[in-house]
Model the fold of this input.
Amino acid sequence: MESRNNSLERYSRQILFSPIGETGQRKLVNKRAVVAGCGALGSVIAGLLARAGVGYLKIVDRDIVEESNLQRQMLFDEDDVRRDLPKAVAAQKKLQKINSDIEIDAVVSDIDYSNVENFTNGADVVVDGLDNFETRFLLNDCCVKNNIPWVYGACVGSGGLSMNIVPGKTPCLRCVFESEPPPGTSPTCETNGIIAPIVNIIASIQAAETLKILSGNIEAINRKLIRIDVWTHKYDTINIANAGAGSNCPVCIQRIFERLNAKTSSVATTLCGRNSVQIKIKSGAKARFEDISQRLKGVGEVRYNDFMLKFKANGNEITMFEDGRAIVMGTNDPVAAKNIYAKYIGM
Done:
């Protein structure tokens, strides 16, 4: 896909950067990228890739713009909040005004085992703007299976991580993180907060790695796990070249794609007549109510006993059981319920 006005002038300063040059820029305008999630990381990533001239962007996100997003999600404004715009649609509208030469596809949907391969079909790269490990592990299955490079990123508080997964060339996500954390143990933006500078730093690293991949500079990609804390000024890289060595990784070695087969994913079921959704998390680990309550007590009302934990905040109510199963009250929408669970408990 050549630029619609057949001019590369708008990218002249990028072309002057010799590792990209005109050859690399022409590759960019003919490449296809999927941004999975358009919250904090995804909104910055999408903006950078659109300005860089990546010819086709597919932005997939399940949520709408809320006022609390504006502190760190750079594509959105108060008008988007008033209009209840889905994040993917709001991003598309903004980015088409920034670069009308490229094609942008907005997809308002939850990413799950039934649609992830359709969403990533034909992509040259997938970039992680997600907020939970469950979907990242699913994305890892999908990209390894279909030989699609993808760029992982995550941040909370003042810290963040990023790494590249290029099937056949680097370890995959399961090599580095062998299993998802037990329910309620992962910090979330709702429980631990987040500051915008770390979002922009991690997203910028992800975008730079994406440009390397798409412009044909695959040998220049980072092959370590980057870890940054912008508040404590800590920056380090962790050598992951031997991650999973000898462990016979179930994904990239055995090629067993459990998440794509929905064998280890969460299941959200609407409970008839109760205005509630039950979410089953198949993590294999027991929830530690005492630890979870400590994380949640500054956010809302929480109490627990030996059998369950109850949490209330902002009109949301979650009843969580030891096996990670939870009932989210106040909605019949499985996607909304998963969003609430991920927001407070983590997935």
Summary: The two ends are 37 Å apart (CA to CA).
